[in-house]
Amino acid sequence: MTESSNQTALEQAFSKVLSPFQNFIEEQKSSSIILISATVLALMLANSEWAQHYSDYLHYQIGLLVGQQPYAMSFKHWVNDGLMAIFFFVIGVEIKRELLAGEIRDIKKSAPILVAALGGMLVPALFYFALTFDTAYASGWGIPMATDTAFAIGVLALLGARIPISAFAFITALAIVDDLGAIVVIALFYTESIQLAYLYIAAVILLLLILANAVGLRRPSVYILGGVAMWLAMLVSGIHATVAGILVAATIPARSSKEPDWFIKRIKKLLHRFERIESGKQAEVKILEQKEQHQVVENVLDAAHQASTPLKRWENALRHPVALLVMPIFAFTNAGVSLDDLSLAGIVAQPLSLAIMLGLVLGKCLGISLFAWLAIKLGMGELPEGLTIRHIIGLSFLCGIGFTMSIFIAGMSFGGNEELLAMAKIAILIASTVSGVLAYAWLYVVSLGQDS
What's the main place this protein lives (predicted)? Predict the structure, then answer.
């Protein structure tokens, strides 16, 4: 028995055309492709006859005029402090979900991941610190600690069935812990002079949002308004405004308002009612004319809403907009570096560039794989099923793709020095490319060994 369809021939034809695009958006690697495209476009514009227009676009002031007092920031500032707060919010939601129901919930399973993530932060920072100690570059030690989850998973997706599915879980959990570490570093070490009054205001807002969660408030408007207020307070407090995204994410309810048993009973009742209406209507009557059926469908949607958690709904709603819009806009805004006065050989020879590249490529590889191996040897846990230490080496190379978070930290480290910032960005791009190629080649060779 085939399922009936109300689609017209034109709708069915359009669905066939649209389906590949929908599948493209759903795939993890799509965000990596869009990120690369945005980065290449930014580099092309910054080194073309339109370079001045590109620069003007980055510094275009956007804001409000209240009386005679302007409240405005450059477009680049809005992206880095505003849009990226949404990016950090999604990271925070993923961290909370992972802590409550993911790979890092079970300490026996998560111990190697947690220890590996720790090594993946400490060793790259030590590489960087050793090469830049007592220099003007020392403040950038957080740059090689970061991992770009979208690019990392995108490279894994290119390998397809050649890589165990558990590799995706491992790299996702490790990158989430990595992101958490980077956020702590940003909050503690990359702040300006702190305005305590505004920090107190942010703390009060956070407590109110925690209270809202505790009493069962699930309306999105409560957390959106609270989040905007906290972002404003953070913006003027001296602590980077994007930290507000993480803190608000921690307050999003992770409990559904109704239990599964209620949902099952409710859906059965609604389906029975829908079937009764359907069997009793005249054949020529369209569903558009059936108010009762529409009401039943709306009740089903409402029941599904009550049986799901706000945490998961928000993650699902924001994951694709952040991956396909926010991150590419960030890349387009921040990756444009003029190469006119810079030579590749000269950049690579600089201590700053060497520190970033060695930190991301070698530091990440040694830190993650060595610490994971030690955790297993010390009996702290086991690797996920299907993974070996050879896979971990490949995945550790993968974590050397710093890109988004590394560029973000570089901007905070060298924002006042355009020459150093440009050098850091180019080093990040080179290291991320090398890490991605090494990871793909290593894991591909490992997969060949398993097939033989």
Answer: membrane
Q: The domain containing residue 437 runs over which residues? A: 29-190+240-255+309-328+338-451
Over range 378-402, report the average pLDDT. Answer: 90
CATH of the domain at 383: 1.20.1530.10
Q: How many CA atoms lie within 13 A of 425 on its CB side?
A: 26
pLDDT for the residue 21: 46
CA distances 299 to 38, 105, 252, Å, are 42, 34, 24
pLDDT of residue 437 exceeding 80, the answer is: yes
Q: Which helix (H) or strand (E) holds 64?
A: strand 61-66
How many independent structural domains does the chain possess?
Answer: 2
218 vs 305, 339, 446, CA distance in Å?
A: 11, 50, 47
112, 383 contact by CB (below 8 A): yes
User: At 425, is the pLDDT very low, low, confident or very high (cuts 50, 70, 90)?
Assistant: very high
Check whether 3 has a pLDDT greater than 70: no
Weakest mean pLDDT among 9-13, 315-319, 341-345, 422-426? 9-13
Which neighbouring-strand residues pair with 71? Answer: 64
Residue 48 placed within a domain: yes
Q: CA 407, CA 33: separation in Å to the nearest integer?
A: 18
Q: What's this model's pTM, rounded to 2 decimal places?
A: 0.80
149 plus 57 within the same structural domain: yes
- Residue 272, pLDDT score: 86
pLDDT tens figures, 324-365: 899 999 999 998 888 776 666 667 778 899 999 999 999 999
How long is the chain?
Answer: 452
Please, are residues 179 and 405 in contact by the beta-carbon 8 Å criterion?
A: yes
Amino acid letter, 370: L
Whether 200 is covered by a domain: the verdict is no
> What is the C-alpha to C-alpha distance for residues 418 and 429, in angstroms, rounded to an integer?
16
Residue 176: in which H helix or E strand, if any? helix 165-189
Contact in structure between 107 and 124 (CB atoms under 8 Å): no
Task: Identify the burial level of 171 via C-beta atoms within 10 angstroms of its C-beta, where 0-12 means exposed, 13-18 middle and 19 or more buried.
Answer: buried
409 Cα distance to chain centroid: 15
Locus of tokens 């069935």: 161
Could you tell me the two tokens for 449?
């060994």
Give tens-digit pLDDT for 95-152.
Answer: 888 878 776 676 667 888 899 999 999 999 999 999 998 888 998 999 999 888 878 8
**Domain check: are 279 and 314 in the same one?**
no
Half-sphere exposure of 252 (CA within 13 A, CB side): 29
| 398 and 289 in a common domain | no
